[in-house]
Each structure stands twice: as C-alpha cells, then as structure tokens.
Design a protein that fits this description.
There is one protein chain. This protein has one domain: Ribonuclease Z/Hydroxyacylglutathione hydrolase-like (Metallo-beta-lactamase, Chain A), CATH 3.60.15.10. Helix content is 36%, strand content 22%. The chain has nine helices and twelve strands. It has a seven-stranded mixed sheet with strand order 1-2-3-4-5-6-7. The chain is globular. 42% of the residues are buried. The protein binds zinc ion (ZN). The site of zinc ion has 8 residues, from helix 2.
C-alpha cells in the first residue's frame, strides 16, 4: 500500500490491483470512493481508513467488480446509482467466476468466496444528484452516463478534487463493453466543465485537465481505426477480430498476476463490438 495525500482532505491509493481507492476526510468522518477489487486489499484499506476516522459512506462509481467487491468488508453506507444497485442484484458475477478469478488475483481470499461472501449493493441510491454535507464539508455526487450507464462523479469543491471513476482512466482505456460511445465522449465534456485541480481517475495516477485530453485521444484513436476499416469495406466480424487496444488495467503488475489472457481478450472483443455497433447506428461518432 502507498497512500498519497493529494490535498488537505484527500488520500488516494493507486497501487491496489483494480480501481483507485480514495478517502475524503471530513474532519474525522470519512467518505470513501470505490472499494478495492481484492478482499485482502479491502481489509488493509479499511484498517488504514479507520486510523484516520470513521467510515461513514462508500461511493461506488459503477457496478464493476473492481470497484465494488470490497464493499463486502466495509462498514458505513454504500452509495451508488440506482442502476448500480439493480445490476449488482440481477447480474452479479457468479461465485464460480469469482473463485476462479481470485485464485489468480488474491488466493488468500478464496475461502471468503467459497463461504460467506455476498455482493453488497448500495444502501442509498442516487438517480440524478446528491449532496452530502458531513461536518459541513460538501461532497457532490452526480449521475453521468459514460463508462457505464450508471456512473457517479464525486466532487469535493473545497479541495477542487474530482473523482471520475472509469469515465477517465489515466492508465489507458478500460473495457468499454458497457458504454455507449456517444455517452463516453459526452461524459468527458461534462468532466471538463468542473472546476478542479486534481482529477482522481478510475485507474492510473492522479492527473489534471491534460489527462482528460490524453484520454479523449485514446478513445478517438480506437474509434477512428474501427471507422476507417468499416469504410474500407471490412465486415463487423473482421473489425472485431482485428482491432485491439493496449490493456494496462487487467494485465499483470509487480504485485499481481492479473486477469487471464482469455478474459482480457473477451473484454477487448466486446469493447470493439460496442464501437462497431455504435458507429453503424451513428457514423458521425467518428468525428467526436
Ligand atoms: Zn475499473
């Protein structure tokens, strides 16, 4: 663990395998943004947070396992978009998938998944906008379709810090199988309207406005590649088989073996499929 204090109230951990995890310290009452992917990290993260104060709320920026599995070991109230709750209840990753995945990522947590583990869904659901005022510190949560159709942006105006979840990833493109590409670009426009000095992305190092622009270019490049192939007459199947983007999010790190090649490949094909479908429906997307 290597928590970094980036502003008076905000501490960020970017070295967990999975999402970035943050703590907003509202004078001893804490708001956490996203839960660790691995339960071992989540337990250490909880202990670290509790050395700073009481965990009051945990915000899930989306429903994906790398942002929500750690909810299971956390105290406090979980906050998420209503679709995050619905998707965690109706289409949670199966126990077999999680046991298989955790045998790779976090073997010491496998007994949890074979036993008591259950998906912990948001207790408090946001439809559009929610303001938390905790010891008079304002934390502003806003619904924004983007990486998924159920993302939440978390904003701490006092420190000018914006937590985007996977709407912006500094590490590179995440899987966008749950995105609509129009929303993906619209969300970046919305992010740029916030007044912030620090942007805590879903994955990768803490960044700023330039990080949003670099991320936008990564998305544009893949969409342009797909669009060029389609306009040269390639079939959808050919494009899906051919176009790949660099995955820096699910691959091995110094401390973790990462997802299997097979799962990474399935994220890639489903992501490219998404772009192909959206471009067929709306060819102007190639100019975003
Ligand atoms: Zn993620």
């Amino acid at each position: 663990m290597a928590p970094q204090k980036i502003s008076p109230r905000v501490t960020v951990e970017i070295e967990h395998f999975g999402s970035n995890n943050s703590i907003i310290d509202c004078d001893g009452r804490l708001v956490l943004v996203d839960s660790p992917h691995c339960l071992s990290d989540a337990r250490r993260w909880r202990a670290f947070a509790e050395s700073l104060g009481d965990i009051a709320f945990i915000v899930n920026s989306d429903h994906h396992p790398d942002h929500t599995i750690g909810n299971y070991v956390m105290p406090g109230w979980i906050i998420g978009h209503s679709i995050t709750r619905e998707r965690l209840l109706t289409e949670p990753p199966s126990r077999e998938y999680l046991i298989d995945l955790m045998q790779r990522l976090d073997p010491e947590s496998v007994p949890d998944f074979e036993g008591e583990y259950r998906v912990r869904v948001p207790d408090i659901c946001v439809h559009d906008h929610l303001e938390l005022s905790i010891n008079d510190v304002l934390v502003d949560l806003r619904y924004q379709r983007g990486h998924t159709r159920n993302n939440l942006l978390t904003y701490l105006p006092e420190d000018r810090v914006l937590f985007t979840g996977d709407i912006v990833c500094e590490a590179g493109l995440p899987s966008f199988q749950d995105s609509c590409i129009q929303d993906w670009f619209d969300a970046l426009d919305v992010v740029e309207q916030y007044e912030f000095d620090y942007l805590v992305p879903g994955h990768g190092v803490v960044t700023d406005r330039d990080g949003v622009q670099r991320y936008r270019e990564l998305g544009r490049a893949v969409v342009a590649e797909v669009s060029a192939l389609l306009s040269r007459g390639a079939t959808s199947e050919e494009v899906i088989a051919r176009v790949r983007f660099e995955d820096n999010i699910h691959v091995a790190t110094e401390t973790c073996i990462g997802y299997s090649q097979e799962v990474i490949e399935s994220f890639q094909t489903r992501s490219i499929e998404r772009i192909v479908e959206d471009l067929h429906a709306e060819p102007e997307l190639a100019n975003r």
